[in-house]
Structure formats: structure tokens, C-alpha cells
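The protein record quoted in full:
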Amino acid sequence: MLDINLIRKDPVKVIERLNARGQDYKNIIYKIIELDDERKALTKKLQVLQEKRNKVSKEIGILMGKFKKGEVTQDIIEERKKEVENIKNEILNLETNLRKTKENLKNHLLQIPNLPHESVPIGKDESENKVLYYWGEKKEYPFKVKEHWEIGQKLNILDFDRAAKLAGSRFVIYKAYGALLERALINLMLDIHTREHNYIEILPPFLVKGEILEGTGQLPKFKEDLYKIEGEDLYLIPTAEVPLTNIYRNEILSEDYLPIKLTAYTPCFRKEAGSYGKDVKGIIRQHQFNKVELVKIVKPETSYQELESLLKDAEKILQILELHYRVVELCTGDLGFSAAKTYDIEVWLPGQGKYREISSCSNCEDFQARRMNLRIKTKDKRKYYPHTLNGSGLAVGRTVVAILEQYQQEDGSVVVPEALRDYMKMDVIKPFERLP
């Protein structure tokens, strides 16, 4: 959520930066200012009436004393009591109007995305993202390369048809060495992030309340992409970012704990409502997938240094696995709703002949902290909103895709990356023949 004071201070600048995302935010920004003016006016009226009520109530007390002495009549006291009653009714009406205005203001603020950082390149969509650098080299194959879904089915480690029988399209069954590969990757990622990068592992709930999704920015804007439990205020998480970032919602933490670095493996659930017809085959875009997430809660003055280190932490997994990739800086038109700046790591998929996103590393600045009401207290009792960061470390299914495609062999087998061999107890994945 944007700081209302920032909006009021320079609405033209705020609109200019928001419009760089590709939409016109002028009307809603000025509507927010109008609602805030209304809130202030109602608050002032309420304070005046409350003061008046208190003053008249004190007068009634004095008049009661005079009445006992025979100095005033009962009629005068009753007149004052009636005046207090009228003021109370006015206050109730004002409180109702104020509550509605505050809700309306909040609802408008919740629709506004984060301001792009000034360093983010201006662009209309992903075609104008900026490639920063490459890591590793593309492998040369003396045979026609296959896509991961074909490799996985021939090895009998991925089953899409039976998954569709169980749950419909965009699901997969990992079998035998496929399930082992997925589990090995999760363990490798968590081990590296906890032992080498000093993240603290968390196992959060996979269901969260609506207000939790509101805190990180999925609600209200992306409601159609979420799976909701019918009749309950509970949603399946679309990413571990949601519960991890919200752990300290509505709390005031000592600055001594910063930076807080958390990691978690969770399944993730997304309807992918806006992706109809995209990536129909394979496991690139599934309704359910596994991911290891990285989250940081940091001081504002260090958050962009922390973003660079977060990116390096995510890259390290691909480097250990010796998977060729590139790093891209997202332009304003491709920036996520809550992000002020984002780097995408895109891994090379030779079967598809293209780079595909395997991690997004974002600095959300204080946007999410304001929505969650998470504050930090300094030693001198000053309070401020911290900056929150998140990134995939990595999307596990897409890492499986990259391994199957980059490590494929002419005979249909797949070489196991050296870093995974102790986890999998094998060097090569060959067809699994003990299951139909």
C-alpha cells in the first residue's frame, strides 16, 4: 500500500511513476485524495461534536448541583439532556460515515500497485525487459533435442494422462526417479539456503485467511487466480511468500532482529486464470507445483543491497547444478503488482529453444509492510515500516524441466547433475520399468 502522505505531497509525480506501468492512474489517485479530504473533514467534525458533548455534559453536572440548591428548574436540565442526546445521534451518524469513508479509501488504496523504483527501465511489456548477463554456456547436442514432457514420459517418470484422470488438466504425477529428483532438489535448495546463505527454514500453513493475501498484494486484484475453500475464509497459498511475509503481521519488532531471512518449501496453487492456452504441455505452468521461497525483512537503507544478495542466493542453485541461465531486469510494464524492482532469472531450455523464468527476485520496499501493518522499533523508540523482499530459490518443477532438457542424452537417459548425486544415489536417470 502506498503512503497516503506521499500521494498527497506530489500526486503528479506519483501518477507519472505509476503510469509507467502501462495504465492511467490519474482518476483513482485524485479520488484517493478526495476521499482522504473527506476523511479529514469528518474527523474534524467528529472531534468538534465530541468536545461539545463533553462540555454540555459538564454543564449538566453543574446544573444538577444548582437544582439541588433550588437555583435552576428541572426544565433547564432536561433541555440540556436533550441537547446531549441530539449530539450523540449526530456523532453516531458521523462515525458511520467516517467508517464508510475509511473503508472506501482503503479499498481504493488496495487497488494501487507499488511505485516502480527510479532505476527500473521504462517499457510496455516483457519484450522491453533488459538482459543484464548470462551464466554458463549453451551445450551443443549431436542429436535432435527433445522437450521435457517427452523425455519424462519416455523415462516413465512423468505421467500427465493419469494426473488428468485424477485432477484434470495442468497437473502431473511424478513417478519413481521423477519424484526422487523433485525431492532431491527441494532438499538441496533448503540445505544451501540454510547452511550457506543463513536463511531460517519455516514450514508454514498451506492455507491462509483472506487478509493475509491482502497483506502481500494478491487480494483484491488477483482473486480469480486463487483457490478458495468454499464457505470459509481460507485460500490455498499461491506461493510461500504469502505466509512467510505475513508471519509478523500487525506486530512491532525490535530492529535488533533485522535482517530477517526466511526460507520455506511449499506446494503452490494457482488457477492460472489469465494463461488459457499457454504452456498446455508439460510442467511449466501447473495448477499445483513445488517451490522453495526466500523472504527478507530488512532496513529500508539496505534493501537494494539485500536485493542483489537475494539474487545471488537464487543464482547459486543454478550454478551448483551447472544450468545455463541469464538474468533479466524487468521493465515498468512487466513489473509485478507489489514490486518496486524485480530481477528475473531465466534458465535455458534447449528443447523449447528459449529462456524461461525460474525465479523472480523482488524488492517491495515498504508496500507490503504497510498493508500488513508490520513495523520496526529502534532503540530510541522510533517506529518505521521495513522493506520486504522475496524470490524463488527456486521453482522446483521448472528446475526439473531444465535438468531434463539440458542434461538429456541421445539414448533418452538424463545425466544427474553432480550436486544431486549424493541426494539421488545415482548418476544417470534411465527408464523406470517397474510400473506401467
About this structure: The longest strand covers residues 288-298. The chain has a mean pLDDT of 96. Residues 63 and 71 are 9 Å apart (CA to CA). DSSP finds 13 helices and 17 strands in the chain.
